[in-house]
Design a protein that fits this description.
By secondary structure, this protein is an alpha/beta fold. It has five helices and eleven strands. The longest helix is centred in the first third of the chain and has 14 residues, at about 20-30. The chain is globular and about 45 Å long. The two termini are about 30 Å apart. The relative contact order is 0.14.
């Protein structure tokens, strides 16, 4: 049957967030009854500088609205979810407890290379999902490329999710020779990211060239052929 996936990011609960907006998003997600909720990170926007604890009220609401209603859930760590640091002093430090609410990654006991903490993969139905951690970024090629190759050989759709996008037109950070090149080299079908508090979708693109140009495929019909490139989506 069809796999229905809800994709959302930067929903943020807490005193720095707009709670009525969060409730509306959570209600809309639940009404569509997706098989999987893919959350792209930033669950909590709390107000304190270098908080010492993660308030239980945040965790209760996350569990009630973003975990319990869904059969499968895959969560990406956002910078506001990880422990605070000098660059992000209002990081909530809630991630360890939030991470415990989502589905377990698939096991690969014979793998030569292992993913880092908070990273992993899961196959649900006809789709292979990979969750990556942006903080700090590290090229996942060694452990992820063999898994994507196997998934493609099985005819699966391949999707990567991370918090900070590899390409975006908002608050742009140049990543075409790093994250963008590394992700397109893996040739996934889709890459989802959040962080920007906006929505963007790009044409199918391929690995950036040495001169910095990015090859892309424009579909006149609006239909995209699997294998022609990777579609990057910002949704959060």
């Amino acid at each position: 049957g069809t796999l229905l996936v809800g994709v959302v990011g930067d929903t943020g609960i807490g005193e720095r967030a707009y709670h009525p907006g969060f409730i509306a998003v959570a209600k809309a997600l639940k009404s569509h009854r997706p098989n999987l909720l893919l959350h792209l990170g930033d669950f909590v926007y709390q107000p304190k500088i270098f908080p010492q604890t993660c308030p239980e009220r945040y965790l209760r609401e996350i569990r009630k609205t973003l975990a319990d209603p869904f059969q499968f859930k895959l969560f990406v760590p956002g910078d506001n979810d990880l422990p605070p640091n000098r660059k992000k002093p209002k990081g909530s430090g809630c991630w360890e407890k939030i991470d415990g609410m989502d589905s377990n990654f698939d096991s690969y006991p014979t793998s030569t290379h292992e993913p880092r903490t908070y990273e992993g993969t899961m196959t649900i139905g006809n789709t292979f999902f990979a969750i990556l951690n942006t903080y700090p970024w590290r090229d996942p090629k060694l452990w992820l490329a063999p898994r994507i190759k196997k998934a493609k050989n099985q005819g699966l759709w391949t999707i990567i999710a991370l918090h900070e996008p590899a390409i975006t037109t908002a608050w742009y950070l140049e990543k075409r020779n790093t994250v963008l090149k590394q992700l397109t080299a893996l040739k996934p079908d889709l890459v989802f990211a959040g962080n920007q508090h906006s929505y963007e979708r790009f044409h199918q693109i391929n690995t950036p060239k040495q001169d910095g140009s990015i090859p892309f495929v424009v579909s006149k019909s609006g239909d995209y052929l699997k294998g022609d490139g990777t579609i990057f989506v910002v949704s959060g």
